[in-house]
Amino acid sequence: MSTGALETPGRGAGLADIFRSRFLLKLLVSKELKVRYRGSVLGLLWSYVKPGVQFVVFYIALGVFLGLEESDRNPDGLPNYAIYLFSGIVLINFFTEALGNASRSIVGNGGLIKKIYLPRQLFPMASVWVSGVHFVPQIVILVVACLFNGWRPSLLQLAAAAAGFIIVTLLATGLGLLFGAVNVYFRDAENLVDMLLMIATWASPVLYSWIMVRDKLGETYFNIYQLNPITVGVETFHYAFWLPTTDGAEAIPPHLLSVWIPVALAISAAVLLLGQLVFRRLEGRFAQEL
Question: Most buried of the four, 14, 45, 81, 103, by CB within 10 Å?
Answer without folding.
Answer: 103
